[in-house]
Design goal:
Structural class: alpha/beta
Number of domains: 2
Number of strands: 16
Strand content: 15-25%
């Protein structure tokens, strides 16, 4: 017991904030000169399968390797900084093709020694997590790319497992002074990141980016859902040029690319709504109106108007939440103070 108390004391002392003048760390990655990633942070890039989120990731990696700007994506790391790619999905041959594409972007026959890639498709999540920690401790890279974060969980909807993985990312970035770029799948129904893991990742990320594919034009667009450190950038679009045999910039202003659908709760499955409500009410049992609005904005990625005019009314009508003593409660928790029906 004494040892535990001493450990907590050490943690408390270490965690005490010292109010000194601080400057923002230089950005490691920018898009259109907007800050996307800095040291000791992680970001998420989400998209449906085949939306080309991995292609956009390749431009991030290419800029880390060469220092050049690609599709308005610019990395700012030193020539000695190491970069690591963790792939959890692809076979060796599929990854070989992906790596070949990367070499075409950087215009080299081989990737430099500063770049390392690891394929963990055959291993369980716990082994992959331990391996990532070992790589970070041994190589001390500046940036780790994880494609795909969803594969680090046995069940992306399990709250405890989701929190464990996000806490792992926070610990990793802090202990080894590195940053992480995470790719995530979107659900086909609601178009939001999968399960509690996706929701927790988006809440903890410095930047939340999203890739969408317009099947009519075959344009893929990268846009920001949330940036903590800067104002939003205009969407970036790419298309594959058969003449040049590579991806090039496309006009993101085309109607097919930028057609924005009106927000609707009908786009979410019951499981997706429940996952987001679980996260909110796991932190505390009740909320006043303003606090609930702020948390719903974060988990649904929308503004005040959508939350106040659409989300809260639907959650109330569909009996996800109810009000009692001027506070909002979660039906699933069945609080004892729930008023009895007359």
């Amino acid at each position: 017991m004494d040892n535990k108390k001493d450990t907590i004391k050490e943690i408390v002392n270490k965690s005490l904030f010292i109010d000194l003048e601080r400057t923002q760390p230089p950005p490691l990655i920018t898009i259109s000169e907007k800050v996307i990633l800095t040291e000791n942070n992680f970001i998420t890039i989400s998209g449906l399968p085949k939306s080309r989120k991995t292609t956009f990731m390749q431009f991030f990696i290419a800029s880390c390797i060469t220092g050049k700007k690609y599709i308005d994506i610019q990395a700012n790391i030193s020539a000695d900084d190491k970069i690591v790619l963790i792939d959890t999905e692809q076979s060796e041959y599929d990854f070989y093709k992906q790596n070949k594409f990367l070499k075409r972007i950087i215009e080299k026959n081989t990737t430099p020694a500063k770049f390392s890639a690891y394929l963990f498709r055959e291993y369980d999540p716990e082994i992959i997590l331990s391996s990532i920690y070992e790589i970070a401790e041994t190589l001390r890279p500046k940036i780790i790319f994880i494609d795909n974060l969803t594969e680090l969980a046995i069940n992306p909807n399990d709250i405890a497992e989701a929190k464990k993985i996000i806490q792992f990312l926070k610990k990793l970035t802090n202990k080894f002074n590195l940053s992480v770029v995470c790719l995530l799948h979107l659900s086909k129904g609601g178009g939001f990141t999968l399960g509690n893991l996706g929701s927790y990742a988006d809440r903890g990320a410095q930047s939340v980016l999203k890739v969408t594919l317009d099947k009519e034009t075959d344009f893929s667009t990268l846009e920001c859902s949330m940036l903590r450190s800067d104002a939003h950038f205009l969407p970036l679009a790419i298309r594959y040029s058969e003449d040049e045999k590579k991806y090039i910039s496309a006009d993101y202003t085309t109607p097919q690319t930028n057609k924005k659908q009106k927000f609707s709760m009908a786009n979410f499955t019951q499981a997706e709504i429940t996952a987001r409500m679980d996260i909110i009410f796991e932190m505390q049992p009740t909320y006043i109106y303003s606090a609930l609005v702020e948390n719903l904005k974060k988990v649904f990625g929308v503004g005040d108007t959508a939350v106040k005019q659409t989300i809260i009314p639907v959650l109330t009508i569909e009996k996800y939440i109810y009000t009692y003593n001027k506070e909002y409660h979660y039906y699933k928790n069945e609080i004892k103070t729930k008023p009895k029906k007359k």
